[in-house]
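Section 5: illustrative case.
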């Protein structure tokens, strides 16, 4: 079909992915306190629930970032002048359109690469972008942004983006090595635009993760359904309560699932037979909240430096434009 230049690749085979999952789930569920990697929220149901979260009145993040991006897209494209856009954790792939439109208008647009762990969302968004941007070549990579960045290959005229404050779902200790790895896929002068939810009033933060409609609770419990479907586990998701609170010392929202009663759960593929006491909790996600200073402190030694810090008028959310330094370090932009 003319104009539809897109293809999908998968970073790892099914067996390798399944073995990895077994290892990670065993490690998390046998640790004390127990925890689960948040990437396992995102089967098709989980990804749809996240999309529902983005429209909730309490969840200010998505609409604030989208509005902010609409206002700064031309500045970012003007500074970086990219021919290629790369999005990590692309999900429904909506926000990226604002940048692609600017790149097209500037006559720069050539390629787009989306990387996400959810194959269905990835193939739908890849296909939709190829349809709507006729001169664009689109590549979808089903993979893990912590393990599979090598598939991005070397940079050059590249703007990479990581929206939604998904970087906040990494432990702060994971951020510098992650950014260092990302920098290896950026050429001098290439840039990385990172969305960050900011430290703010605790009531507002906690409301965003405890919505009245219970969508976040359903998203949280979905991780147990994923374990049931993929590992043959017999979790009763309704026997776990949704818990989300702001941990001031760590500056993160922590989501947990709390056993409502004593229960036994088997996870056959991971050879686990677990006993939960009433009230016992599993940590399912952290969502770090940053300030300019706390984020900038993580950049030291990564190869990327903060070039621009864009925020909305209420200072709810930031887009940080990081740049790989050029050979000419002292040049002002
Ligand atoms: N970028 C979109 C979606 C954000 S939700 C937006 O701005 O709205 C987070 C996305 O990251 C989901 O699509 C999820 O499938 C993906 N994701 C989560 N952990 C991942 C991982 N380790 N590797 C790759 N993708 C991941
Ligand atoms: C994808 N990520 C940035 C979301 C967040 O806010 O940490 C996931 C989410 N968890 C609960 N609600 C939304």
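Designed sequence:
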């Amino acid at each position: 079909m003319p104009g539809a230049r897109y293809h999908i690749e998968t970073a790892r085979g099914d067996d390798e992915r399944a073995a990895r999952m077994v290892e990670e789930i065993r490690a998390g569920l046998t640790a004390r306190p127990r925890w689960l990697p948040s990437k396992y929220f995102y089967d098709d149901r989980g990804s749809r629930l996240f999309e529902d979260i983005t429209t909730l009145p309490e969840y200010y993040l998505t609409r604030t970032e989208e509005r902010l991006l609409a206002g700064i897209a031309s500045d970012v494209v003007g500074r970086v002048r990219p021919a290629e856009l790369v999005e990590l954790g692309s999900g429904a792939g909506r926000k990226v359109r604002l940048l692609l439109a600017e790149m097209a208008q500037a006559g720069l647009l050539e390629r787009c690469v989306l990387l996400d762990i959810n194959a269905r969302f990835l193939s739908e968004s890849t296909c939709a972008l190829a349809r709507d941007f006729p001169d664009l070549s689109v590549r979808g990579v089903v993979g893990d942004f912590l393990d599979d960045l090598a598939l991005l290959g070397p940079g050059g005229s590249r703007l990479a983006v990581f929206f939604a404050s998904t970087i906040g779902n990494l432990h702060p200790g994971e951020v510098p090595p992650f950014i260092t790895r990302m920098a290896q896929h950026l050429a001098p002068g290439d840039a990385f635009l990172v969305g960050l939810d900011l430290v703010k009033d605790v009531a507002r933060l906690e409301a965003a993760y405890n919505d009245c409609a219970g969508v976040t609770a359903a998203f949280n419990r979905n991780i147990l359904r994923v374990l049931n479907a993929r590992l043959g586990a017999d979790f009763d998701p309704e026997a776990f309560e949704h818990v989300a609170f702001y941990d001031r010392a760590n500056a993160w929202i922590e989501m947990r699932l709390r056993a409502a009663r004593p229960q036994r759960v088997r996870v056959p593929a991971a050879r686990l037979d677990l006993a939960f006491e009433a009230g016992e909790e599993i940590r399912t996600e952290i969502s770090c909240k940053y300030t300019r200073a706390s984020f900038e402190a993580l950049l030291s030694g990564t190869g990327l430096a903060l070039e621009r810090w864009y925020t909305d008028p209420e200072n709810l959310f930031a887009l940080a434009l990081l740049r790989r330094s050029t050979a000419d370090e002292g040049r002002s932009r």
